[in-house]
Amino acid sequence: MLATKLRGKITSNRKLVVEIPQDIAPGAVEVVLRHDAPRKATKASSRKIAHPGFGLWAKRADLIDSADYAAQLRQQIEKHADRHA
Q1: Where are the domains of the chain?
Q2: Number of Cβ atoms within 10 Å of the Cβ of 69
Q3: Are 2 and 19 in contact (CB under 8 A)?
Q4: 10 in Cβ contact with 16 (< 8 Å)
């Protein structure tokens, strides 16, 4: 197997665009993508979050651990999806 380093880009509609040199014969290839690390997100604390669901469980006295409650909800949804698949 031969290796050739090519440069390309990924378009906004998630397509890989690469110029293939003439000396590479048509046929099967293996593609390995090396790309820049994703940009760091801005701090959420510096922005106001206006979504109506934000803080939905904040005043619920029956929820000790909201992360645990959310995990339980996800499990219930997955079980329901598995039964109907």
Answers
A1: 52-83
A2: 14
A3: no
A4: yes
* Whole-prediction pTM: 0.36
Q: Spell out the SS3 assignment of the chain.
A: CCCCCCCEEECCCCCEEECCCCCCCCCCCCCCCCCCCCCCCCCHHHCCCCCCCCCCCCCCCCCCCHHHHHHHHHHHHHHHHHHCC
- Asked if 57 and 66 touch (Cβ cutoff 8 Å), the reply is yes
pLDDT in tens, 18-64: 999 999 899 998 888 888 888 776 665 556 667 777 777 777 788 77
The two tokens of residue 79 are 């079980």
The token pair at 74 is: 């996800």
